């Protein structure tokens, strides 16, 4: 090509690393679904939840991930994909810490909402890197 690089040459290692990290980010949602379904009985007992609260426990991540996905592109346009990707990971870690240390249902749900937001942001950015 004109730039002196061969577009059919070997794929650089950093491209594999970027795709791997982006793929791991996408696993957040599947991991959350798998783990939350396995702990539902314990969460119900620990926080003395009724059926409606258990329903919100499960659906909160899906609902807020939709919100995160809606706002993700505007943030990416203004701050860039890397910053958006980093923000998704910071929000995810914060949500996991809040959820893991929750002493009551409100705190648990605050963590779940943060995790959902991060999943939505991450899932809208990941395909660009994979």
Q: Unreliable segments (pLDDT under 50, ≥5 consecutive)?
A: none
Largest sheet: none
Per DSSP, the total helix count is 4
What's the helix-strand series? HHHH
- The pLDDT mean sits at 85
Portion in beta strands: under 5%
Report the principal-axis shape.
Answer: elongated
How big is the Rg? 18 Å
Helix content: over 70%
How far from one another are the termini?
24 Å
| Content-based structural category | mainly alpha
List keywords for this structure.
single chain; 130 residues; mainly alpha
Description:
This protein has 130 residues and is mainly alpha-helical. The protein is 84% helix and 0% strand. It is elongated, with a radius of gyration of 18 Å. The two termini are 24 Å apart.
Write a brief structural summary.
Helix content is 84%, strand content 0%. By secondary structure, it is mainly alpha-helical.
Give the SSE map.
Blueprint: H1 13-47, H2 51-79, H3 81-100, H4 105-129
